[in-house]
Amino acid sequence: MKTKLLIAGLFIMLGTFNLKAQFVVSDPINTATSIINTATEVIQTSSTVSNVVKNFNEVKKVYDQGKKYYDALKAVNNLVKDARRVQQTILMVGEISDIYINAYQRMLQDDNYTLEELGAIAFGYTKLLEESAGLLLDLKGIVNTSTLSMSDKERIDIIDRVYNSVKRYRNLVRYYTKKNISISYLRAQKKGDTERMLALYGNSNERYW
Question: Considering the entire predicted model, what is its pTM?
């Protein structure tokens, strides 16, 4: 049922721009905002590494709830070109969340970072997610009644601009993750502990390393 709604929402957005299409953009905005707010609270209230680990479970809980939405959206096929671009943009915001949650969980198990560094890394992730999620507001804006007078070209231009901007943020998050992990790698080298460090991040980190 949810997949059918997503298909309908995407075609409405690129076709009649009915207000029901806001559903497809509002969900990822709300999910990302919830992750950002929860992560910010964790950063501000955690005084020890073990406390950060415990509190970060609340962030992951929000992420797991939103992941169901992204998994459903991935299953939507046979979209027209511009609807596909909207879908890809939304999924990239989900990928940013995925990179953040999965990489940061491993960093919390890595003793090569200090508490202060873990806080700074988390802050960086939340800011990048916040910026990318904010771009989705532009997509939501094109389904408002006030923009029904926009031409198809104007709508497509907005979609392309948002897509390219979110893609840059996605790539930046990958780079940010790679650079932070490289710090751990250098410290592990000095301690002669690279094997344990590489085992921690494993194959799941191949796309960022």
Answer: 0.78
